[in-house]
Amino acid sequence: MIEIVDLFKSFETGDKKNPINALNGISLKISDGEVFGLIGTNGAGKSTMMRLISGIYRPDKGKILMDGQPVYDNVEAKKEIFFGADEPFFFSNSTPKEMMNYYKDLYPKFDCERFFSLLDRFGLEKVRKITTFSKGMKKQLVCILGICSNTKYLFLDETFDGLDPVMRQAVKSLFANDMETRGLTPIIASHNLRELEDICDHVGLLHQGGVILSQNIEEMKLGIQKVQCVFENENDLSGLKAKTTVMIDDKRGKLHTLTLRGSREEIEGLFRGLKMVFFEMLPLTLEEVFISETEVVGYDIRKIIEG
Amino acid sequence: MTSERLLRGDNVSITQNEPKKTGCFKNFLTLQKQFMREHNAFIIIVSILFFLYYVGILSTGCMLIKADVDYEIDTFTKFEEYLFKWNTITILGCVVLAAMSAVFSFNWMNNRQKIDFFEALPVKRNIRWFANYLSGMLMVVIPAALFCLLGLVCTGFFGYFYNHLIIHVVCNFIKEISFFAAIYSITVFSMMLCGNSFIALLLCTVLNLVEGDILLLSNFYPSACFETYYLNFYNTFEECNFISPFLKVFLHNDMKNSLVLYDIVFAIVMTVISFVIFHFRKNEMAGNSFVFNKVKMFTFVSVTILGTLNVMLMFIYLFKDSNRIKTNVFLVLVTVVICFIISMIMNLILLNGVKALFKNFKFTLACCVFASVFIISFRLDLFGYNSYLPNPSKVESCALFDAYYGSDNELFNSEYASDSQRISKYFAEKYMNITDVQSFERIAAVGQRNKVTNEVYGNDLVVLYRMKNGRKIYRVITVPFNIDEALMDKVTSSNQFKEGAFKIYHVDEFEKEYPENHDFSYHSYGESIHSTKRSAVKEFVKAYKKDLESYSYSKEKNDLIIGKVQYSGEKDYCKRSITLPVYASYTNSINVLKQNGMLLSQKASTYNVKAITISHYSNVDGEDIKDKTVTYTDENKMHEILSHVHGNSSNYWMSDEEDDSSEDYYRINMYYMSRKELTDKLIKEKNKNEKDKNEKDNELNSSGSNKEDQDSYDEYDSEYGDEYDDEYGYDDEYGYDDGRDSDEENVIIPVQDEEGRTISNYRNFSFNKNEVPAFVISDLK
Description:
The complex is a heterodimer of chains A (307) and B (781). Chain A has 307 residues and is an alpha/beta fold. Chain A has helices at 46-53, 75-78, 96-106, 112-122, 135-148, 165-182, 193-199, 217-223, 235-243, 264-272, 286-296, 301-306; strands spanning 2-11, 20-30, 36-40, 61-66, 69-70, 81-84, 153-157, 185-189, 202-207, 210-216, 224-231, 246-252, 255-261, 276-282. Chain A folds into 2 domains: 2-214, Rossmann fold (3-Layer(aba) Sandwich), CATH 3.40.50.300; 223-304, Alpha-Beta Plaits (2-Layer Sandwich). A 6-stranded mixed beta sheet of chain A has the order 6-7-8-3-9-10, sandwiched between helices. A 4-stranded antiparallel beta sheet of chain A has the order 2-1-4-5, covered by helices on one side. A 4-stranded antiparallel beta sheet of chain A has the order 12-13-11-14, with helices on both faces. In chain A, helix 4 (112-122) packs antiparallel against helix 5 (135-148) and helix 5 (135-148) packs parallel to helix 6. The longest helix of chain A is centred in the middle third of the chain and has 18 residues, at 165-182. The two termini of chain A are 42 Å apart. Chain B is globular. Helix content of chain B is 56%, strand content 13%. Mean pLDDT of chain B is 79; it is low at 1-16, 415-419, 655-661 and 704-763. In chain B, helix 2 (24-38) crosses helix 7, helix 9 (197-225) runs parallel beside helix 13 and helix 16 packs antiparallel against helix 19. Chains A and B meet through helix 2, strand 6, helix 3, helix 4 and helix 6 of A and helix 1, helix 2 and helix 6 of B.
């Protein structure tokens, strides 16, 4: 389990008084054997957090414990981590085989046989120079290297973004397989929430260096409901707002699309006493959860558009 | 290919491997292996260079020697020494290789992509750092060692495998590697401080050169602003104990053995510091100019100030002689403008953007203020440099020496030195320990004042105060000719002064330094006489020292030089001499010369003088105006004139300039016969007075010395004439070949010295005080 306690990280800007506070006292827990999705607004600190958990950056304050031991400059802890950066690095003029040779010397459980097998299946040549690979192929290679390193934790920073749907699906299958067989815990940072929705068990939502929420994805959806309705009496809406948290109220004519905090039963119960022209519970996507939650803390699309 | 297929296949292929052990050493080797693989192109280039340097040069040398049987082992080693000698190319070669390999080793730290890759790997940061550090060094050291060895094997193959050669090549290799290590470590240090390799290289350059620049500024600013500053730039650079290994080697253009140890220690210290910095370095600062903000600002301020002061030095020299308020205000304005321009350039480099040009305004302003105050304090001498006199109780001893002695590396006069009487810095610093500090400082105070105001003609001297705390303070002073003689006597009559001022006290040191071909000679009015007798030297030294016992400023000032003694010696074809002026009052010395048959006429002779011109000068409003010039060709008149002039050497404390400084003075120019005219005259005289001449010759031969009289010109000309003429530009048909037309055959030629070289006849003779012949005064009225 990865435990993050009160984590702070800031970057110097040259102006002592105004450093960039990338992470402001974040606390999170990433349980073993589940896919953790790290989502957040631009500049929320996702990549910084990934680098901190991978032991690339040293925290200014706070703790990052991996199975009880700190990560930074800890070889034993790092043997259980594979970090796939958003812009992966490969040695100049190297081939997948050469990269494998390098990794196999550093990761004790590296599976060479499986590496060749996966290269073959993904259609990547083992002796072709990586510089001639496309962006997607490079990302595939990172995923394969990560999988074959047989580490307990696999950090992928926007790695899915460059993959085509088939490959994305294939990689997801690999994860699923390894999670089942050896308890792999993938931690994936991405902007592509639709993709994460399919694969993630747990989601951490970051905004401006803080965690807005960290929840199981199903529980998250259960706690927020989306309703499309037309009130007979518009005054009922204000009564409703007094009883529950209306996160978003999007009105088109008389049709309201409301995002409300509460369980399905609770929300249905609230509407039951009201005279409605039209009422329907809609399925909620992760993207909508993201927009709803970030809007609450001031990250409002309308503000951005309207200024 | 579908995801189903992938998934299906994968299910089967998963294997759980037994974890292999990955120890620190294995990780270390893995990193090194990969590093070498990644930089194989650089290693190949380095290998080619070392192949050419070692194998190429040694083999070529062997082949050349094989081809020519006359070459010997000695020639080979000399050839090899010459080729492997430290020169600018070797030094710069080492610097470039060291800088490149250090950048290659730690370049990854400045690239976020590479940091993400390397820092996430399960490798201890220390291990990675040392692996990189060693890899960078080894990719140069290993090819160098291999090809050095191969070069030696090649010489063995040609049959020139000698101990001397092996030692020389191995020593050279060690020197190169230690220097390489020193430069490598300072580049790594820069890499640790910077988040950008280009900035790191700039910083490395600054670190290597900054000491030299500070030394340059600390010498040239006072030199431009303080009249009493003693600029001894060459020696300062030579003697300065630089920290920078580059400056140590580059300025000396030599790699002493002691520097090897220094370089190794320097490399170790810098490596430790770099390693410590690495621990404080934050990975997220990669890509920034500097990883530590304080270092960045320190560099910004330092470079801005140094840059401004460097540029301003040019303006300071331009306006050296003008110290008006307007000029100083103008200089402050220029300082501010230059400071702003340099700060903008620094912002552009450090902050990497045109928008950042005007950032760090407060620091720029501070730099402007500092640079302006610095310049004004120098220009206006706010700290009283020119009038500074140390507290006598804190001074251990003092010394003075001539400000224009020439190269201080020459302990003794070179063969053609004319400044023979001057007090050398070397001997004054070593042997002159004047303890009468109060008298000394009184002289210095007068001299310093006179140097600044430049009111009275005088001797330019350098005074040295040796402080009790070990510090040395130098000042240039001008001792006016009208200085209180009693005060000067107090200092100059002491043995402490004489031991540093006169080289006669150090004849032993001279003989040890130049042990070959000793020659003892006496020179007077264009004639010289040599003695090979060792006893003559000893006697003369003793007598001269005895004469010096009564030496003092006032006595010497009013005395006349009648000739000079020159004692010369050689070492490795390098001839040096001690020159000692003989004054009329030096009776002991004159007696010894007389006893050894070396004393020449004490008056100038007219035998080779064709004409004498005397000009009368008046001093009107500070300008010398030539009133009238009269030329004398009549032998009797010329004889009369020459009997009232003093010789071709001025007294140390009383140069002819003192005479010139009087309102009216005479300038005597002597015009000597051309060689052809002199020969004709001598032949004519020879025929006329054959009998007299024979008597004179007999007299000279019986004296047992080998006087080189001008009478021997005739014989000499017939024997060596052609050779001599070729060498010195004589032409039998046209006289002295000075570039004039051939019809000017009988032009008056300038005087030549004993060696036949042309010397200026200007101020060669001066009238003795109050001895201007009456006919000269009347002719020039």
